[in-house]
Design goal:
The chain is of the alpha+beta class. The chain is built from 6 helices and 3 strands, in the order H-H-E-H-H-E-H-H-E. The chain has a single domain, classed as Rossmann fold, CATH 3.40.50.150. About 40% of the residues lie in helices and about 15% in strands. Helix 1 packs across helix 2. The longest helix is centred in the middle third of the chain and has 12 residues. The protein is globular, with a radius of gyration of 14 Å.
């Protein structure tokens, strides 16, 4: 999922239980969920209730919410301009992600044998 916004962003951050549940149910045993997120100050209060970025509160919220659905965190990392260029995303360019707007890749996996 690349650059969600609104309720989908809240679900990706683990802040909307129903949306988080819907996202997590898409991942089959042995499957992987890859989120590309960007949250800045002007987004945070209105859409997430968190401070800008993927600080400790946002990371904890995400990891806990998806763990409750059987997904294990693989990685959270800030994307470089080169990473963003490989996405070939018009939306990333519109957001100016990688410029004055940081972006992160967050990946989770559902272990084999796990049930969603």
């Amino acid at each position: 999922m690349r650059f969600p916004w609104g309720s989908l962003l809240r679900g990706a951050l683990g802040l909307d239980a129903a949306v988080t549940d819907s996202i997590a149910r898409l991942v089959a045993p042995g499957g992987r969920l890859e989120l590309t997120l960007s949250v800045v100050g002007r987004d945070a209060p209105m859409k997430t209730g968190l401070a800008a970025g993927l600080g400790e509160a946002a990371r904890t919220s995400m990891v806990t919410a998806f763990a409750d659905h059987g997904l294990e965190l693989d990685e959270i990392r800030e994307l470089t301009a080169d990473d963003l260029a490989t996405l070939h995303s018009a939306w990333a360019r519109r957001l100016r992600a990688g410029g004055d707007r940081p972006a992160w890749r967050v990946t989770f996996t559902r272990p084999l044998g796990a049930v969603g």
